[in-house]
Amino acid sequence: MDILAVNTGSSSIKFSLFRVSEEFRVLCSGALDGIGSSRGCLHAEDGEGTVMVNERNDALDHGSACMAVLSWIASRLPAPDAVGHRIVHGGPQYASPVLLTEQVTGELQQLKPFAPQHLPQALNAINRVTEIFPQSIQVACFDTAFHRAMPPEARFYPLPDIVRDHGVERYGFHGLSYQYLLGELERVAGPDAADGRVVLAHLGHGASMAAVCRGRSVDTTMGFSPAGGLMMSTRSGDLDPGVLLFLLEQEHLDAAELKALVNRESGLLGVSGTSGDMRTLVDIAPQDDRARRAVEMFCYRARKTIGSYAAALGGIDTLVFSGGIGEHSSFVRSSVCNGLAFLGIELDQDRNIRNLPCISRDTGRVDVRVIPTDEELMIARLTRETVAPV
Ligand SMILES: Nc1ncnc2c1ncn2[C@@H]1O[C@H](COP(=O)(O)OP(=O)(O)O)[C@@H](O)[C@H]1O
Ligand SMILES: CC(=O)OP(=O)(O)O
Ligand SMILES: [Mg+2]
């Protein structure tokens, strides 16, 4: 069985085609990233790492990016038997992957207001796949599913019931990544580690953390929408609600302006004034005060969250860094962990700089790890389980 995994993110569409038998063999994996930035690029490699395409693609929006990706796949690769989609929001109802029927797609349409930066694009991708690969079964895999069993004290906002009745509660995201990371943690560190008190840090363009105990999400930083929680590349993360009220009432910003502000103009980009790309900011920080402040704020907020998750879990056994920043920036990892020795978090700077899988000191109580995430492989596994349950 060939399974295509489609990961519609906020600024990219990533994809992988797997040939599935006993294991999942990558036939091709790639992405169109930088959508709308005028620096877009479509790139893909085959399973041996040979470049199949690497070209500029100035897709101005997700619609044209999606067409470009699927047309390229259709022209170069075998038609998939099944296609799994990352669906960022499953609303209150979806706690596990489902076959995409007309009814499910209709229900997902209703959820668009819950994730306006992600869901319209994913629904568009489902429609395009239906046109281009009419024989393929399609499956929806939800980013929110992993967190649906969070305990009520973490799941609800201190708001009146009437607001909760509208579906306003804490959903949490990056669940496909977290599920994958837990599986990898079990593989590399054993079942006891994966079953313990774990903090998972998915630090990418979108960034979040999850506190996990016995394999279950106990709390996570993103709440109702992917704009909440940690400071991100262009998203503000958590704000005092009074900030939005002030901007609304006193500065007369309308809904569209507030949306743009918290999703696209804040975070690392807003504070530095130059870039939302952590790599750039770390490079220029020594001679740029605003860039340095942006990086420091990012790390401070992440560090503070680890402290609060130590309280939520009653201590931490394992801390995992992942996502583009977590996997590649030894500087950010070091800064985030700085001063956390009182929790047993002590980095071995040599291991950290060399990006080794385990970066803590042998004497530290907490095992600190770097694990590359693979949302596409997780989507493909869940898709296989859904179309051909064992
Ligand atoms: N060596 C590095 N140092 C710092 N940041 C990095 C490095 N490599 C990648 N990043 C950052 O990772 C982010 C992208 O993360 P990624 O998880 O790939 O994004 P997405 O959320 O789009 O999947 C970018 O902000 C990029 O700057
Ligand atoms: C949920 C979320 O933030 O996704 P991404 O990191 O792909 O933007
Ligand atoms: Mg992502």
UniProtKB/TrEMBL annotation:
Primary enzyme class: transferase
Which cofactors are reported in the record for this sequence? Mg(2+); Mn(2+)
Cite a single Pfam family from the UniProt record. Answer: Acetate_kinase
Q: Which residues does ATP bind?
A: 14, 202-206, 277-279, 324-328
Protein's cellular compartments:
Cytoplasm
**Record field: transmembrane:** none
Provide the residue positions that the database annotates as binding Mg(2+).
Answer: 7, 375
Site note Transition state stabilizer applies to: 174, 235
Supply the EC number(s). Answer: 2.7.2.1
| Binding annotation for substrate | 86
Q: Any coiled-coil ranges, and where?
A: none
Q: What's in the keyword line of the UniProt record? A: ATP-binding, Cytoplasm, Kinase, Magnesium, Metal-binding, Nucleotide-binding, Transferase
UniProt-recorded Gene Ontology molecular function terms: acetate kinase activity
Q: In which pathway does this enzyme or protein participate? A: Metabolic intermediate biosynthesis; acetyl-CoA biosynthesis; acetyl-CoA from acetate: step 1/2
Catalytic activity annotation: acetate + ATP = acetyl phosphate + ADP
The Swiss-Prot or TrEMBL record describes its family as follows: Belongs to the acetokinase family.
| Name of the protein in its database record | Acetate kinase
What is the native source organism of this protein?
Prosthecochloris ethylica
